[in-house]
């Protein structure tokens, strides 16, 4: 009986420790989230605009002969969650085995090319975009905010140096990082479907 009793006490003791640990982690997470202000639509839109402005900046720096790789790397680190989390990135013109870009290297290559691992990349940000804007038009405001996550759906409009505008469908999901900044954890973009093609 003593052995059974000792085993039972030991099991209760282990369960108590595990539950206390889970409770402590949950409490820390809740307190951490509660310490920060909630995500606002203005913050989400500012982050999307930073993405648009960054795309234009890469092209301008490249055209001027500057260090566009450094500008691109900063954009990826500032606006994508590769360092802290997992990113689901399906860019507009990616195809084949490299359709999805789960790595930082793959994202940088998509924007500026130059990687042997992604030989099909010519550099989306090097196409000379003069202006890039967005809207969130998938619903009334095209945005959902759920705690530390914000989702937008709508379009991006890219204007080239001839004034031609390319419209791209986009879904962006942002996650608040440890430093309080919003970063993309999902980026899905594609050219709109055209039934005639």
The average pLDDT is: 87
The total of helices stands at 4
Number of β-strand runs: 6
Quote the beta fraction: 15-25%
CATH topology of the largest domain: Nuclear Transport Factor 2, Chain: A
How many domains would you count in the coordinates? 2
- Cα Rg: 22 Å
Highest CATH level, the class of the largest domain: Alpha Beta
Reported CATH architecture of the largest domain: Roll
Main attributes?
197 residues, alpha+beta, Nuclear Transport Factor 2, Chain: A, 2 domains, 6-stranded mixed β-sheet, 4 helices, 40% helix
Write the layout of secondary structure elements.
Blueprint: H1 2-35, H2 41-63, H3 68-79, E1 88-90, H4 104-112, E2 131-135, E3 143-146, E4 149-159, E5 165-176, E6 182-190
Parallel strand pairs: 1-6
Antiparallel strand pairs: 2-4, 3-4, 4-5, 5-6
Helix pairs in contact: 2-3, 3-4
Overview of the molecule:
This protein has 197 residues and is of the alpha+beta class. It folds into 2 domains: 1-35; 39-190, Roll (Nuclear Transport Factor 2, Chain: A), CATH 3.10.450. The chain has 4 helices and 6 strands. It has helices spanning 2-35, 41-63, 68-79, 104-112, and strands at residues 88-90, 131-135, 143-146, 149-159, 165-176, 182-190. β3 and β4 (149-159) form a beta hairpin. The longest helix is centred in the N-terminal third of the chain and has 34 residues, at 2-35. The protein is globular and about 45 Å long.
In summary, what is this structure?
With 197 residues, the chain is an alpha+beta fold.
């Amino acid at each position: 009986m003593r052995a059974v009793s000792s085993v039972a006490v030991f099991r209760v003791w282990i369960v108590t420790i595990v539950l206390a640990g889970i409770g402590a982690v949950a409490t820390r997470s809740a307190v951490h989230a509660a310490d920060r202000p909630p995500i606002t639509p203005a913050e989400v839109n500012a982050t999307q605009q930073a993405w648009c402005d960054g795309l234009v900046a890469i092209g301008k720096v490249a055209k001027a002969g500057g260090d566009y790789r450094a500008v691109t790397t900063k954009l990826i680190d500032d606006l994508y969650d590769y360092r802290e989390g997992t990113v689901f990135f399906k860019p507009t013109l990616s195809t084949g085995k490299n359709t999805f870009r789960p790595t930082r290297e793959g994202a940088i290559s998509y924007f500026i090319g130059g990687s042997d691992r992604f030989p099909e990349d010519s550099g989306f940000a090097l196409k000379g975009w003069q202006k890039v804007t967005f809207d969130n038009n998938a619903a009334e405001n095209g945005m959902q905010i759920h705690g530390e996550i914000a989702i937008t759906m709508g379009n991006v409009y890219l204007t080239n140096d001839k004034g031609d505008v390319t419209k791209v469908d986009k879904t962006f999901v942002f996650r608040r990082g440890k430093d309080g900044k919003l970063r993309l954890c999902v980026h899905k973009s594609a050219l709109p479907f055209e039934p005639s093609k």
